[in-house]
Structure formats: structure tokens, C-alpha cells
Specification:
Elements (H helix, E strand, L loop, with lengths): L1 H10 L5 E4 L2 H8 L7 E5 L4 E5 L4 H7 L5 E3 L3 H11 L4 E4 L6 H10 L4 E3 L3 H11 L3 H22 L8 H13 L5 E2 L4 E4 L20 E6 L1 E3 L2 E2 L2 E6 L5 H20 L6 H14 L11 E3 L6 E5 L12 E4 L2 E4 L3 E4 L2 E6 L2 E4 L11
Parallel strand pairs: 1-5, 3-4, 5-6
Antiparallel strand pairs: 1-2, 2-3, 7-10, 8-9, 9-12, 10-11, 13-14, 15-18, 16-17, 18-19
């Protein structure tokens, strides 16, 4: 109820109500996962959730934040509420609604001004960015599964096994040890393939002399975890050790830069400067991190392109990397909770170079 109440309060002075159709935002406000539904939140505190007959019983048993109703006559019920409450202006999720769905809403809700600006998106993103203690605990539970999977997979990585085999072993471990789902399609790339930050696992076999990068996470109660570890098979060369140590130093620097009030630009720069000083600036093309929650990529971000400010309660990844095309790549990633004077690292896995 607190999340819906908070959104209702922010609507005051901005709009009469908000309509939320996206699956992820419905989940955020109701804690109920479904592929169908509509959540109405009014500035006067009223809220209601509609869904079809596949979910009405389960939703009624699960959702305590607002009433649940059948969506058979959704437009009729919305129009009745809008008339009763004299609602004229309604915010919609402009970034998540299709053109056809928008046109249908305009047709179904005559006399209602649908605000298709970014206002509702910004309100929701701002609210979702600050995690409650309960949300942090869900993220930690998801992260614990991922960390246990890392401990397990170290014993499974062998020369001759394929990237796909290791990926599937990671996925199976997480799904069979409490994960509701995978945070995203697991990245498991080795050797020259590891130079692709979002490379797709292949039938390539693990060889001596390979870096193996694993980027993956688990979902618990709708909340995601995200971690990356790069291990080595055999004995690394001086160049490989230098790249790994440079990435680790950059990641450590960006973590140390995190605190309430720091910009995502400065947190990114703390690590990026180290990579550039080592001569690998052109080999680090992506941002240092992003927020995590009911989606794997949320706002704010750590990037040379952002002006966003990090605040207490934000959970962000810190994942610099160096990628040498055709040779190898290294990425190291933790999640951190921003605190008033620093951050709390939510990842409890070794980061020193592991050679198998």
C-alpha cells in the first residue's frame, strides 16, 4: 500500500490520476505478476487493479494494496469512476504504451485528456530508484543464489567443456536453488569471444589460455541480481594479468567513489580514468553501471553520458571492462547500495584473479 500511497501523493498538483498498464510497473505497485492488468491510481488516494478471469482469484488473494476487479468492462468502469470523481486529466506510461493502445485508450475514454509526456515515467522511475529494506533483502536473496552458483560452477569449468554447457549448468543451478527466474540470458564467453561484452554462449570449447567471463543473475520475488566474474584457464600472460588488474583497480575506484550525492558521471570517471591511464580507454565502450530492481536495467546509471545524481537507497552495478577485439576481454561486476557516506557492497564473491 505504501508504494501506491506514495505515487498518489506525487500526483497531487500534477494530474488527477495515473493509468499503469506495463507488466513491470504493475508488479512493482501490487507485488502481483501477471501478463494482463490495469492499475488506476488517483490523486485523492483511490486505487484499483483490474485483470481478466485468468488472474482475478489469485490477484484477489494476493493484492492487499487496493481492490481487485474483473476487467471485462474496463473502459466502462474507468469512465464511471472518472465521472464520479470528476477526473479530467490522466497520466499514462508514454514510454511503455504502443501507438495502437494509445489510440484505443483515446477512443475508450472520451472527454479524458491523456497526458503522454514523460511525467508518469519520471515519477515512477524516481520512486523505483530508492529501494526499501524489504526490496534490498529480495535483491540480496537473489544475489546469494548467484553467488552460490559461482562457487558451484568453479568446480564444473574444465578444458573441453563448451560455453553453452557452462551457461546451462549456471542456469540450472540457480533455477533449482530458489530462483524464480533468470535475470537475463546468461552471458558465458571465453577466449576471443570474451572480447564481446554481450557475447552469446556458443559451442566453443574452453581451452588453456582462455579468459572465461560469466555475467548472470537470479530473480527473487520479482527483484533481480546481477554479477560478473572473469576467471582464467591455465596461466595468464603478463598482458592478460595487466588487463585484469587494471579492470579490478578501476572497479575498486568506482566503488570507492560511490556515496549519496555523487553523480553517475563522476562515479564512472573514477574507474574510467584508471583504464585510460593504462592505455585501454578505447577498449571500454559501455557505461560503468546501472540501477537494478524489478528490472535488470533501471535508472539512474553510471556513465560518461549522464548527469543523474545517486542517492541513498539506490542499488547500482559497478562493472567496468576492457575488451581487446579478437583476443580477450575482462569484466568484473558487483552491486552496491548507496549510503549517506559511501556504499554497501551487496556482492560477496572473490575478485582476485582465479586461475583454474
Amino acid at each position: 500500500m505504501q508504494k501506491i500511497t506514495a505515487l498518489s501523493a506525487t500526483l497531487q498538483g500534477k494530474s488527477d490520476a495515473a493509468l499503469i498498464f506495463s507488466e513491470v510497473n504493475r508488479l512493482y505497485y501490487t507485488s502481483f505478476p501477471s501478463t494482463d492488468g490495469c492499475l488506476l491510481v488517483c490523486a485523492d488516494g483511490y486505487a484499483c487493479f483490474w485483470t481478466d478471469s485468468r488472474y482475478t482469484e489469485a490477484a484477489g488473494k494476493t493484492i492487499t494494496a487496493c481492490p481487485v476487479a474483473d476487467s471485462t468492462d474496463l473502459s466502462g468502469q474507468l469512465n464511471a469512476i472518472f465521472k464520479e470523481k470528476n477526473i479530467k486529466n490522466v497520466l499514462i506510461e508514454a514510454d511503455r504504451i504502443t501507438v495502437s493502445a494509445y489510440k484505443k485508450l483515446c477512443n475508450d475514454l472520451p472527454g479524458i485528456t491523456l497526458d503522454d509526456s514523460n511525467t508518469l515515467t519520471e515519477l515512477i522511475e524516481s520512486q523505483r530508484a530508492v529501494k526499501s529494506e524489504e526490496e534490498v533483502q529480495y535483491i540480496l536473496a537473489a544475489q546469494k543464489i548467484a553467488e552460490d552458483a559461482f562457487d558451484y560452477i568453479l568446480g564444473e569449468i574444465k578444458v573441453g567443456k563448451t560455453e553453452k554447457e557452462i551457461q546451462l549448468a549456471l542456469d540450472y543451478y540457480m533455477l533449482s536453488h530458489g530462483a524464480q527466474a533468470l535475470s537475463f540470458e546468461t552471458i558465458c564467453v571465453s577466449g576471443a569471444n570474451s572480447s564481446m561484452p554481450h557475447g552469446v554462449p556458443t559451442d566453443k570449447k574452453i581451452e588453456n589460455g582462455d579468459f572465461l567471463t560469466m555475467d548472470y543473475g537470479a530473480v527473487v520475488n520479482g527483484y533481480h541480481s546481477d554479477m560478473t566474474r572473469t576467471v582464467f584457464i591455465g596461466t595468464p600472460t603478463d598482458e592478460q594479468k595487466k588487463v585484469y588488474e587494471t579492470v579490478l583497480a578501476a572497479q575498486t575506484a568506482s566503488l570507492a567513489a560511490l556515496h549519496d550525492g555523487v553523480s553517475g558521471f563522476d562515479a564512472d570517471k573514477a574507474g574510467r580514468d584508471i583504464i585510460e591511464a593504462a592505455g585501454y580507454g578505447k577498449n571500454f565502450g559501455h557505461g560503468t553501471g546501472h540501477s537494478v530492481g524489478v528490472e535488470i536495467h533501471e535508472e539512474p546509471r553510471l556513465s560518461p553520458k549522464t548527469k543523474q545524481i545517486l542517492h541513498t537507497g539506490h542499488v547500482v552495478t559497478v562493472e567496468p571492462g576492457i575488451y581487446l577485439p579478437g583476443k580477450f576481454g575482462v569484466r568484473i561486476e558487483d552491486m552496491a547500495l548507496i549510503t549517506p557516506d559511501g556504499c554497501r557492497n551487496l556482492t560477496n564473491c572473490p575478485k582476485e584473479l582465479i586461475c583454474l
